[in-house]
Amino acid sequence: MPSDIEIAQKAKMLRVTEIAAKLGIPEESLEPYGHYKAKVSLAYIDTLADRPDGKLILVTAISPTPAGEGKTTTTVGLGDALNRIGKKAVICLREPSLGPVFGMKGGAAGGGYAQVVPMEDINLHFTGDFNAIGLANNLLAALIDNHIHHGNELGFDVRRIAWKRVMDMNDRALRDIVVSLGGPGNGYPREDGFDIVVASEIMAIFCLATSLKDLKERISKIVVGYTREQKPILARDLKAQGAMTALLKDALHPNLVQTLENSPAFIHGGPFANIAHGCNSVIATKTALKLGDYVVTEAGFGADLGAEKFIDIKCRKSGLRPDAVVIVATIRALKYHGGVDLKELNRENLTALEKGIANLERHVNNVRNHYGLPCVVSINHFTFDTDAEIELLKRRMAHQNAPVIVARHWAEGGKGAEDVARAVVDMIDTTPTNFKFVYDEEATLWEKVTAIAQKIYGASEVTADSKVRGQIRRLQEEGYGRYPVCVAKTQYSFSTDPQLRGAPSGHVINVREVRLAAGAEFIVMVCGDIMTMPGLPKVPSANAIDVDDDGRIVGLF
Q: Is-contact 103 541, C-beta < 8 A?
């Protein structure tokens, strides 16, 4: 089978004006970036306010494994399948970061015959949104150091600067650095560091903002540092919010592209799925719901991390409510959760599969009982899957009230996901939701993280040392207790140990660090080791990427 990029480059794309016309978007409301991608104006989006919303379908997955699950591929395939069976469907995805593209994880445009295109553009510079976010972040960093250099009227304690610089590339050498060397003309030397753009609070704010006004207000509330008396200093104290919003003004307009089968797709924003909520922009999702009868979107990582944050952060802040959930799994990944070595995943192993199904069962239980949403299990098919394995999975899941359906969209495009599409539509039509958050807004921060750990992760308790408990208590007293909690931990396990596969129970979740995201309006609880500036692997994907003599990109997946 040809590579993803070879398939994408042979796609028969329609001009973006034709894709927009499918949704009733007039040409004058588009800002084209070439022939096949465009931004949709916020002024046009404002005119949609009185339209009814379509149905929202959330795609999530089991706990990620090195074997892969195919969540984005399923999102794209399901959107295409819905359109094939006569529904008006729109897809909403995150934008990919360049760091993973040139590192090892890969892009975020789907795969096989379930992709969004133009794939090279989406995975590389696209419409410049990440560049704008990086510039806005670094403008704020420059204003902080400039203020200190010119007298430090606000009284920054240079040991307590809370704002890092960012770049959209994996570069471990920049994690911890010293800035302002070279004498008095260059400012005060201090320790600093870089995060990757997707980990910036600006990215989280960008994806939760509902308008330019809301964006600017959120930016103004960012806590950038503290005085020696530990009084917070905000971005508005530096008068930074106006200029930062100016850099982000055009980026806030959502991006319209298409799938290989010419289904409309909005790809906009991409916050880190660990340190932030990991969802595409609220503006894009709400716009799609006004334009389509069905909207298929995805959350980052598994249903314990990504879907929980989608529910407790994105939905809580935006008023969005999913009508159904699709949980993506593969036979291979379930066998991995059952203890099989990566090299042995292509062999039939019913014992390991039965053991690994526990991971899927807990995710289904969380979605149905803790989020109150009906769900379908979509098995992303591999040619190595055996009939006996598929039958075992269906039999074991029969009591879960979550239909298990094999999907072949990677190889067949939308046609291969039609059964999933019909099942989801039927579920939306016949099964009412009982949507609920994992915790109440009025619960304390400690009660919120405990609820997530015990209900969703299966943990016995949450612990933290006296310093962290003091930070949580102080945040509560300062009025931040109403904020949602964003747990940052490994995505590979329900626990904080990535080696604990399956569905571990009774483990302890230790909160080792607390971070305030005052502009995004959530509290990050760091549990375990979380890297906000990834490094490149020994053999990065960049080694295989090239441009041929005709100017065509090759080696990009």
A: yes
Active-site pick, 73, 245, 285, 330: 73
- Are residues 107 and 123 in contact, defined by beta-carbon separation less than 8 angstroms? yes
Taking every pair of Cα atoms in the chain, the longest distance, rounded to a whole number of angstroms, is 73
73 carries an active-site annotation: yes
Contacts of 9 (CB under 8 A, 6+ apart): 119, 120, 552
Record the pTM.
0.96
Helix (H, G, I), strand (E, B) or coil at 281: coil
Query: Among the options 105, 190, 236, 396, which is catalytic?
Result: 105
Q: Is 382 a catalytic residue?
A: yes
Q: Which residues contact 228 (CB under 8 A, 6 or more apart)?
A: 155, 157
Active site residue 246: no
The answer to whether 538 is a known catalytic residue is no
Peptide bond into 322 cis (omega under 30): no
Backbone angles phi, psi at 262, to 5 degrees: 65, 25
Residue tagged active-site, from 94, 165, 317, 448: 94
Active-site residue, from 102, 126, 206, 410? 410
How confident is the model over 380-410, as pLDDT tens digits? 999 999 999 999 999 999 988 899 999 999 9
Any catalytic annotation for residue 415?
Answer: no
Question: How does DSSP classify residue 53?
Answer: P
Dihedral angle sign, alpha carbons of residues 412, 413, 418, 419: positive
94 tagged catalytic? yes
- Enter the tokens of residue 226: 């503290």
Buried b or exposed e, range 119-137, using 16+ CB within 10 angstroms: bbbbbbebbebbbbbbbbb
CA atoms in the 13 A half-sphere facing the CB of 382: 18
Model confidence over 121-156: pLDDT tens digits?
Answer: 999 999 999 999 999 999 999 999 999 999 999 999
CA distances (Å), origin 221, targets 234, 249, 516: 6, 18, 11
Q: Phi, psi (5° rounding) for residue 218?
A: -65, -45
> Looking at the DSSP assignment, which residues form a beta bridge with residue 233?
225
Does residue 71 carry a catalytic annotation?
Answer: yes
Contact 405, 379 (CB under 8 A): yes
Measured distance between the N- and C-terminal CA atoms of the chain, rounded to whole angstroms: 13
Distance CA 265, CA 282 (A): 14
